[in-house]
Amino acid sequence: MTITPNSRRNARNLMKVWPSLFALMTGMGGIAYADPTAPTNVTGADAPVLNTNSTSVNQTAPRAFIQWGTFDIGTGQSFNVTYGAGVSVPAQAILVNRITSGDISNISGAINAAGHVWVLNSAGVMFGSGAQINTGGLLASSLTTINGADTEAGIAAMFGATPTGTPFTPTAFTLSGGAGGAVTVDSGAAINTTGTTMLVGPSVSNAGAISAGGTAAMIGATDVSLGIDLDGGTGLLLNATIVGGTTSNAADPLSAGGTVSGHRVILAAA
Question: 48 CB contacts (<8 Å, ≥6 apart)?
Fold first, then answer.
C-alpha cells in the first residue's frame, strides 16, 4: 500500500476527531443509554414527559405505577418526580416502575424525587459510575413478583383496593420471581436517600457509596419478606426475612464492597 500526503492528512484528521466520537458513543466514559421508553398502564400519575435528556413524572396520588418498555438513564440524563395536590406527604409517596423489555436497566444518570422510587426489572438493575440517586427512598429489585402477583394486582394487594390507596404504616410484602438478574452498584455511583435504600435480587453487589437516612439493605435471595414503616417519611425497614428453603442460585449472592451507611444496615444472603 502506498502512503500519500493525503492519506497521512486524513489519518491525522481522524485521530483528531476520534476522541470526540468515542466520548459521544460512550457517554464520556460510559455507554450512552437512552431515557426510559414506552410508558404504559400509568396509574396515580400524569403521563410521563419524555425529553431528550430528561424524563419527568408528576405523581398525583400517594401510590403510583408505571410499566416501561425500558428504563435506562444515561450519563447527563435525569429522571425527575414531582408531586401534585393529591400527594399530601411526598416523603411517603411510592412510584413503582416495572420494566418488561427483558433488558437490564442501566442507570448512569440522576434520579431525583422527594418520595420513594421503586425499580423492578427481572433482568437486573445496574447503577453505573455516574449514577446520582437522590430520593426519599429506593427499591431496586430483580424480583418482580409482589405478594404473589407479577402485575399491578400484586401492588394493589399491598396498597389496598387500588395502587393509589391510603398510605400504609407499617406494611409487609414479599418479593419473589424474576429471571435471576443482578442488582449492582458500580464504583463512582452514589445512592442517597432520606428513607430506606433496598437492593434485592439473587445477586447483589456494591462498589459505590450508599447512604440512607432510614435503613440500607442489601439482600441476595430469590424470595424475601419485607416490612417497611413510612411514618414521618423515615422509611425505616422494620424487618427483612429470607423465606426458608430458598437460595439465590448465584455464585456470589452478596458482595458488600464500597460504603454502606444508614440508621440501620442489613446485609443478608441465602
Answer: 36, 39, 42, 55, 56, 57, 66
